[in-house]
Design brief:
Two copies of one chain form a homodimer. Chain A is built from eleven helices and 18 strands. The first copy, chain A, is an alpha/beta fold.
Chain lengths: 405, 405
């Protein structure tokens, strides 16, 4: 029941990147569940990872390997998160890297592992022995669409985006895939994102961009407020287009960054559109805050309120619930009289009370839309933050009461 | 669908307290929706109120009146919270106090107003003109049971408790009522609690006790994490039993406090048992924390996780979700290797990984109970905190998607 979701189909190959996909049977039979991403020598790789204190074994290893060596392969499995699995889980994750390193005559540190799926189950090692060679066999630059399906868990649809643009007569390509539908409040979620470009970007700049891009995309979505143990988002730059970004202040850098931002935001929003049980795609837009923390505290409190989310599901313009959520968000010395609340172009709250021009019918018409924004103006300062979220529906309960994710 | 809920029936009158109940039609016809509580002269009154920055007009006035004068009446309506109603809402709440003051030849400051119900609707003033005289007409010391019903909103059952005990040959009575089922994370919530005793307790001591008692009862329950704009909990001591508490360190003070604590906790837990859509009553018990904040952060993060709550609803011992919630609770320098997790007497997590003796069947047997505890030992210090919560069921969604509360 995804919201206004169009499956992306026109994937462009990124020179320097090949993908292999296999059925390894990590957890389920008869589905692609293992993806290997091969990166050409010289590719810059940057990543941001979950802030959950109990981050999964593959996340720990990923961070170490990224610091130690130039990555040449990503190894991704779905079906098992390899989180909460203790020392054995860590050893298993190391072993998966070693298996791929052996087959490719590389060091294990050049392999970055990613896992998503059930927490607390031992990793199925024979599946990796089976899946890795099978995935290597079908490595291809044109495998993005299949890879997008191969990393899905409770996702109902594969998520991808691809764009090409011109820089001084040279074509630059950006292609990415993502996954995630539940346990989604990435701070750096059970989301994974993999975005590649053939622009040339130094590892230091790429890391700085990756953080900045995640902070306006994957780190601004929430479905249930549950930050996963496995969230990872990787940005890869092969340099094969011939376009090299050296001056961060240049128009070229600005162009590439803006295109990457589009890719990050669309991939992040695709996760929300396919959120568990989602029937609404809602933008929470908080402005007039005194600080970023304040803006985000208000936005997340509204986005996580079960009462606000069930009202959205019901298409009930129950703005009292929004007001109550704003009021409990922890902002100090809050002056209600300065607060304005709009849904799309309809003002509901004016200076803290119900707007004179507001009618229940006007509010209900907006809440009935599958996609709308809730704009909250605090009147305290100049900071603005936006995030994207879903409603809380019967299907959310059904999915999470039935599925051992 | 309340969980292990027994409707309390043996209310004892509290000397010095009379209650009047009426059908005022604030919002709905044909139901008791207005309660007047008369307090004898000399009654000490203490209160704790919502910390929501946008507290309702009656809460603002209640705090002012409590500071200005000795309260003689509480005026309580259900059906309309008089919150988010601006200046008119404030004026209306003042007017309701004036109406009751006129009829009783008191000052308006001696009236404490309480409202609960829908947010953002103008208060129905003719209902007060109708309801106040009607409630005054049936003032009686034996009206607690009817009053408990008269303050209900989405509650399915009335909540009350009463106890009598002996202090040096004199009988002391404690009787209380509470309401609330949604928008419940009192920090001080849309809950109301009114507890009266005929012990004599000074206003200063009563206020200190009221805060302390709320912090181990109403401030330790959560249904949906939504702190209301109207939560209020009042403790009243008439002194009519002849038992006077003067020395807070005396055995008498200790006895009365412990009996009050029993009343507060049972009334608070009754709100959780009758939580919207609740099928489980779950104690979250966090020990080994380095600070109270840390213990509460972990406990509330687990209690609010939609993934943990839907697993409880499904009777699915999905402990990975508990572990992930603990990991995202914001505790700094968290060492997973020291974490132990138990459900009732079954240890699931031992030193951060799955306990060797744990079986899925043993976990599932506990999760299938209507009432169980999740105990999380952090291994960081000596602080322990407990709170009480519910699962997240289809009925929760149905109730909140259908009812304009």
């Amino acid at each position: 029941m995804a919201v206004n979701f169009t499956v992306f189909e026109e994937f462009k190959a990124v020179d320097g990147v090949r993908l292999g996909v296999a059925q390894s049977h990590v957890r389920y039979a008869n589905r692609d569940d293992m993806v290997v991403v091969e990166l050409a020598e010289g590719t810059s790789v940057a990543g941001v990872f979950t802030t959950n204190a109990f981050c999964a074994a593959p996340v720990q290893i990923c961070k170490q390997h990224l610091a130690e060596a130039a990555p040449r392969y990503l190894l991704i499995n779905t079906g098992n998160a390899n989180a909460g699995t203790g020392k054995q889980g860590y050893a298993n994750a190391v072993k998966t890297c070693e298996l791929l390193a052996e087959k490719t005559a590389l060091a294990a540190a050049q392999i970055l592992p990613f896992s998503t799926g059930v927490i607390g189950e031992p990793l199925n090692m024979p599946a990796f022995e089976r899946g890795i060679p099978a995935a290597l066999e079908n490595l291809s630059a044109d495998n993005w669409a299949r890879a997008a399906k191969g990393i899905m868990t409770t996702d109902t649809l594969p998520k991808g985006f691809s764009t090409q643009f011109d820089v001084h007569g040279q074509t630059v390509t950006i292609t990415g895939i993502s996954k995630g539908a539940g346990m989604i409040m990435p701070n750096m979620a059970t989301m994974l994102g993999f975005i590649a470009t053939d622009a040339g970007i130094s590892p230091a700049l790429l890391q700085s961009w990756c953080k900045e891009l995640a902070d306006c995309s994957f780190n601004r979505i929430t479905i249930d407020g549950d930050t996963s143990t496995n969230d990872s988002c990787m940005l890869m730059a092969t340099g094969r287009s011939g376009v090299q970004i050296s001056d961060v202040a240049s128009p070229d850098a600005e162009l590439v960054f803006s295109k990457l931002k589009e890719a990050f935001q669309l991939l992040a929003q695709a996760i929300v559109r396919d959120g568990e049980g989602a029937t609404k795609f809602v933008t929470i837009d908080v402005s007039g805050a005194a600080s970023q923390k304040e803006a985000l505290d208000v936005a997340y409190t509204v986005a996580h309120s079960p009462l606000v989310k069930t009202a959205m599901f019901a298409s009930d313009a129950n703005w009292g619930r929004i007001l109550a959520a704003v009021g409990r968000s922890g902002v100090q010395n809050f002056d209600l009289d300065r607060v304005q609340i709009y849904v799309d172009d309809v003002q509901i709250v004016e200076n803290g009370g119900r707007c004179d021009s507001y009618t229940e019918a006007a509010g209900a018409a907006v809440f009935a839309r599958s996609e709308f924004s809730v704009r909250i103006e605090l009147g305290r300062g100049d900071v603005r933050e936006q995030l994207w979220t879903t409603d809380l529906s019967h299907d959310y309960v059904t999915i999470n009461a039935d599925y051992r994710s």
